Structure formats: structure tokens, C-alpha cells
Amino acid sequence: MKGFDPQSHREARRAWQVMACAAITLMSVATATAAPASIHLPVPSLTGPITSPASPVDHSAFTPSTDALPAAVLQGILEIAEGRLQSSPQLLKPLIEGRDALLFPAISLSLFSDGDLLVPVQRGSMVRELATKPPRSYWRVIPQTGRIWREPGDGEWSRAALPLMLVNDTENHAHQGVATFLYREGAVSALRLQFAQHTGPYLLKQHAVLWGSAALRWRSAAPTAFDAERALARRERDERLPVKPWTELVKQFPTGSLDGFGGPVLPHWQVLNAVVYRGTLYVQDSPTPYGPYPYPLEMRFGVRSVMKSIAAPLALLRLAETLGPYVLELRIGDYVPGLDAKFSRIRFIDAANMASGFGGLGSLVTRPNDPYAGYLEGDYDGWYTAPSSAEKLQAIRRNLKPYPWEPGTVMRYRDQDYFLLGVAIDGFLKSVRGADADLWRMLQEEVFAPIGIRQAPAVRTRESSERDGVIWANAGYYPTVEELAKIALLLQAGGAHQGRQILHGPLTRDLLAAREALVPTVDGTQGVDAATRTAAPMLYRMGYWFPRYVSARDGIVRHLPSMQGSGENRVTLYPNGIIALHLGKASELPAGERATSDDADATHRIIERLAGF
Questions:
Q1: Which neighbouring-strand residues pair with 500?
Q2: Is the four-CA dihedral 206, 207, 213, 218 of positive or negative sign?
Q3: How many CB atoms lie within 10 A of CB 432?
Q4: pLDDT at 33
Q5: Which option is the CATH number for 304-541: 3.40.50.2300, 3.90.79.10, 3.90.1640.10, 3.40.710.10?
Q6: Mean pLDDT across the stretch 454-478?
Q7: Measuring CA to CA, how many Å separate 182 from each of 154, 213, 268?
Q8: Going by C-beta distance under 8 Å and a sequence separation of 6 or more, which residues neighbour residue 536?
Q9: Averaged pLDDT for residues 12-37
Q10: In angstroms, how far is CA 538 from the centroid of its own chain?
Q11: Nearest Cα residue to 340 out of 349, 353, 331
Q12: Could you say which DSSP state residue 378 is in?
């Protein structure tokens, strides 16, 4: 196979040494002492006839062993055929909306090596399947940066491995997986795949491990074909936060100080926990039945309603900085045609506060208020799975209606509010910047890129089989833990980064201080007194929850800003500068299971012990 040079081992060895530090940060430290890949996946198991593997293997098969050698340079296009996946437990309903969740999609990836790193050009992108005829796969694929190496005893074969995420374009579900293959001059092996971790399912309903094999074809590229992409990838790595394994944080405190971090979520339902402490991101291993996931920093997660804390709020804060705070007062109805007349009075900030006064399902009782009354009524799944923007808007018009109270007074949690808010912000942006303007692209260019986030895969409406539409503002983002940390750091800095004001400073600080936040259980038509607000177990404003915490040290009551999404995904910003990040899978629980303990403040107390508030 042309495109990697067996004579280049001397150069590869030098590059291997240069890139070693960068590569180590991608990997779980726990894999370093596991059995080598050649034990779990020997050469004959990958180069023989393609068969259905009996089971997944230990994750150490997807990382270099301690005595690994430099690999041959790899550069070209990898064509992956459709592959049938197995599952444990067996999926009861693998066909969802006519697409097969047990079919790995046929895709094409452009890959190049940089030292011992294997870099996909499409990293951080939701890659579509190549097939255009049934059967269709339920999944798109997000590739991430992996490794190349040679194992002693593998002969002329080099090994390649990379993280792959199975993600969906109809919901915000993600399976975190890995893939590996062998390569040498003139040949590639089959691809071995396994997906042993995931964030919470919704339409799939079941928690499951998936695995399988797929046939490969390789087309080599010229030596200089990916020079620009290689330079970009290096810049991305330079922009990464300082990262250390969790064990390095544990060493800094008395024994047991961090025990229980991640609570109240029970360990079985945790996917990954991390903390930003004094500017460094400390990351725990992500446990799976087959050993820790080997590339924790490359994992992308379906964070569901955490998107409510990101797309619309950051867009409004950015537009407030560039155009003025008046953008919060704009009316939804002026930028989304065909809605109920009440939307001419519903401001952007009302929708952001889940207080549109629309979506009239469930109880009309507001004293005390139930913010979730009617949340999943009105054919919620019909709206959620409607592919196009027009079909989603039609479902809203058909099933929802005005409440009798005015906007901005009573909170009723509605995903539809945030979807409409995203459509409205996108419409406003087009009105001031032109028809090609796009909410998510504006965030990528003006907010994410300046803080070192270069990819931001997220679900959009599906306007046709090949064309995506407007971004979902209610869910759909697939971030890494580091990207969530960078967003939280920007907010903690009052919307500024390296001396540049990106978000509107006063509004950002007001948001984190919960100023003008609603008390979800209180009818605000006649105002809310300070005592009621202080005693409230939870506040809400602009996509952020503010759980109440009473300091164990001085008894001060604080409402802590928190991004939260179904499955127990949480990012909490503490007044001492610490950020706690928790990714979970606690949705669609089996009968009789519980996801959390009764100790809601478990992690808050740990953070307070680390540095005080």
C-alpha cells in the first residue's frame, strides 16, 4: 500500500518522541499496564476472513503497549464498508424511524499521521453514511484523534486505532467507541469496532454495548496532501487546556478528600467526571466492562439539555456585546412567522427563562407552580422526531396553545421554547447580517474558536436526506469534557478571554449571580420577595439551573450556576473558580433502578473542602 513508507522509521521515531507528550494526554493512564494489543487482537484475528466477533475485547487492544515501536507513516483515505453490529443485551427494537441501530454506516475518512498520532480530517464532524438506499443506519459517526504504533511480533504490520462516536441526528444520543486496523505496504486488515460506553439513550430505550467488524479499502494520498490539515491539528493541540489524570489531583489533598466526587449520581451511572482546579483539567478514567475507555479527552457526549445553557444564551450574550442588550427584548413572533399571536409579546428572554406563557398543557394551577406540568404532553415525541423545521413548527401550532398568564411570570419547562428561541435568534441574525448568517456558525467563529474550540458537532433539523437546517437550541450538542470546561471558564471570566471581551460582561456576571432568576415553583405574577428567593431549592435563568447550597463552613446560602441535561449531565461553576463536570447515562433506567443517592450536596461539599467558597 503506497502512502506510508517503510523506510521512514527513523523519521517516525523522531516524530514519535516529539509527539509523545501530546499523545499521552489523549489516553487513559490505566491502559499503560494492561496486556498488549497483540494479545487481545493478534494479527490473524484482523487479517483473516471477516467474521462477527464473539465479544468485545479489553480496551488495551486499542492503545500502544509499553514496548511499542514507531509505526509506518499513514496518509490517505479509509473507506469503511457497512458492518453489522452485535449488542449486549440484545436490542429489542433496533429499527427506529426506519433506520437500523445495529448497522454501522458506510463512511469515508481522510486520515494522516503526525508522529504517533492518527488524525482524521473530519474529527469533530458528524460524518454521514455513504449509502443512499435501504437499509439505512441509525447513526452518524464522529471520528477523533487516535494513535499508530507497531507491536513487537507483528512483523511488517503497523497498528492504527482511533476513537469513534456513534451519534444520531434525530436525538442527542452517543455511543463512545474505538476502532482499530492493521496496515502495511499494499494492504489493510479489517476494522474491529466496539462501543462499550454511552451517554443516556432516549429513542433507543436500552443501555447496550455494541461491537462488530467491517471491511476496509485504502487509497493513499501524496506526502504533502494534508500539510494544511496537519498544521491546523497542531494548533488545536497547542490550544488545549493543561490536563492531568485524576490521581495527580488526589495527591494534593489528605486521603479521602475527593471520595464521592460525582455524587449524588451513583457510580454505575457515571460516564466521566472531571474538575478544573487552578487552571488545570483533572480527568477521571471512564469505566467500562472492558477496562477504562482509552481516550477520555476524545470522548464526545450527548449532553441533551446542557445545550440550553450554550446555544441560545451564548448567542444572546455575544449579540448583546456586539449589538447591545436590547436583543434580549426582541419578540419571537417577529422572526418566526406563522405562530400564535401571543408570540408577538413573548421576548427572547422570556423563552430563555422558560417563561413564554405558551405550551398550555397540564395544570393551570400556579400556586404552588409545577414547572414540569404538561412537559411531555401534546405529542412530544411527534414534535421531537419531526425532521424538518417546518414540521416541528407545525407540530407546535397543532398541539400547544397559550396559557392565561403573561410571558415572563410563570416558568413551565418546554423544549419547544428553546427550539423556537433558536429559530428566532437565527432569523434575527439573518435580518441584520444577511441570508447566509447562521446562529451556530456565528458561535463557532466568534465565541468557540477564540477560546480554542475548533469543532462543535450538533444536531440540526433535517430538511432533506442530504441537507441540514437550523440548529437545535434545546438539545443536540456533542462536546468533549474539555470543550465544556472552556465554555465554563469563559463564563467565569465574565465573558472575556485573553483580554478580549467576547460576551457582554455585565449580563454574563448577572447571569452567574442569578440576578432576576425565576423561582420555578412560585407564581411570579405579583413578584417574589427576597426571603422566598433565598429559601428556594432551585432558581432558573437563561438555560441555567441554580441549585441552593448552604455552606458547611459558614452557613452562607448560595445558588450555584449549573448546566444540566437529562442523563445526569452537569457542569457546575463555583465561586472559588473551580468547575465540576459530570457526564452520565442515567436515563431510561431499568425497572427498580435509581440513579442518584439522597445526598444532593455530595460534590458541592467536596469542592468547598478543596478551596472554600
A1: 497
A2: positive
A3: 11
A4: 52
A5: 3.40.710.10
A6: 94
A7: 9, 13, 34
A8: 519, 520, 521, 522, 548, 559
A9: 50
A10: 24
A11: 331
A12: T
Give the pLDDT band (50/70/90) at residue 148: very high
CA 512 to chain centre: 22
Bond preceding residue 89 cis, omega within 30 of 0? yes
- What is the predicted pLDDT for the residue at 27? 58
Whether 88 contacts 122, CB under 8 Å: no
**pLDDT at residue 16, as a whole number:** 38
pLDDT at 466: 78
Averaged confidence pLDDT in the chain: 93
> Distance (Å, rounded) from C-alpha 499 to C-alpha 450?
11
Mean local confidence (pLDDT), 141-155: 97
Q: Interhelix angle for 311-322 vs 505-512, to 10°?
A: 150
Q: What is the pLDDT of residues 302-339, one digit of tens each?
A: 999 999 999 999 999 999 999 999 999 999 999 999 99
Q: How many CB atoms lie within 10 A of CB 170?
A: 18
Which pLDDT tens digit goes with each residue over 382-408?
999 999 999 999 999 999 999 999 999
Please state, in angstroms and rounded to a whole number, the distance separating the CA atoms of residues 171 and 190: 30
pLDDT in tens, 549-571: 999 888 999 999 999 999 999 99
Give the percent of the chain with pLDDT over 90: 88
DSSP string, 109-161: EEEEEETTEEEETTTTS-BPPS--SSS-BS-EEEE--EEEEB-TT-TT-EEEE
C-alpha cell at 359: 405550551
Residue type, 532: T
Position 293: which residue type? Y
Q: How far apart are CA 611 and CA 186, in angstroms?
A: 57
| Residue 354 zone, left/alpha/beta (φ > 0; ψ -120 to 50; rest) | left
Residue at 27: amino acid letter: M
Q: Mention every residue, 6+ apart, whose C-beta is less than 8 A from residue 91.
A: 101, 102, 204, 206, 208
The residues pairing with 278 across neighbouring beta strands, listed in sequence order, are none
Please report the pLDDT score of residue 606 as a whole number.
96
Query: What distance in Å separates the CA atoms of residue 200 and residue 174, rounded to the nearest whole number?
Result: 8
Measured distance CA(24)–CA(450) in Å, rounded: 25
Match 521512514 to its residue by C-alpha cell: 8
pTM (whole model) above 0.90 = yes
| C-alpha radius of gyration, the chain, whole number | 24
Q: Report DSSP letters for 235-269, one per residue.
A: HHHHTSPPEEEHHHHHTTS-TTTTTTTTTTB-GGG
Residue 576 binned pLDDT confidence (cut-offs 50, 70, 90): confident
Which contiguous run of DSSP H or E holds residue 439? helix 439-443
Q: What DSSP character marks residue 200?
A: P
- Residue range(s) occupied by CATH 3.40.710.10 in the chain: 304-541
Nearest Cα residue to 102 out of 88, 127, 81, 84: 84
**Among all chains, which residue has been given the C-alpha cell 484523534?**
145
